[in-house]
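Feature request, filed as a ticket because there's no other form

It would be nice if the structure record came with a short human-readable summary line next to the tokens. Right now we just get the raw output. Example of a typical job, pasted below so the devs can see what we mean:
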Amino acid sequence: MNLIELTASDLGLAAGLVLLLGILISLNGLGLTRSLYVSTVRMTVQLLLVGLVLEALFSADHPFWVGGMGVVMLLLAGWEVMARQQRRIRGGAGYLIGVAAMALPAFTLTLMALVVIIKVHPWYTPQYAIPLLGMILGNTMTGIGLGLNSLTRGAAAGRQAIEAQLLLGFDARRASRSLRRDSLHTALVPTINMLAVAGIVSLPGMMTGQILSGTPPLEAVKYQIMILMLIASATGMGAMLAIELGARRLFDERQRLRLDRLAQS
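Raw output as currently delivered:
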């Protein structure tokens, strides 16, 4: 089956639905119409620009440009992790924690998938490397953002309980054990739910795109299973690393809780 190309008028019809939704939201007095329209325009521009960049990358087919694209994606994802936190860690430490926690599992697992599982040659083939890294990085970003947000908010809300345990002689790691456990739970629940409903309630995006482009359904399913397993692994590892580094930042060398290292909500 050949891919059916979409025209500008086809996309215009889809945009009309968003326009209609904005009108309905306005009539109900929700005040979200402007945000909906701005976000839709931003999404459209961003994706069109990405499409142009990817076409150039696919033509260049060079590891330098593929790696550069990966680094840019990582740095932007780190910024998004910081932006989603109500009580973020002050200074560059918070940003570095998010970037490091994403980079290690996302790049490692992407490289493993390209070299060991898919066995694509060369390993930096943009058609495989960029979408794969993007899906893993995007989901890892969400998990890390949720985990760090839960960690910092929980530390502020549970200050008295944590300090009471420190006064009883517990070290920082033991005093923050329940906080770290709850934060990891918050980070992983969306990923676990995604795994549970895949194929029953929802058809994942990659599989749907491959099927629409003419890939045999069973082959698309195999790729999607691989992707979801990689996403779950990277999200779990990244969240654990981010929460561990974040928890250490909340205490000093004298085992004191340092909420002054958090920005005000």
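Something like this underneath would help us a lot:
The first helix runs from residue 8 to 27.
DSSP finds ten helices and no strands in the chain.
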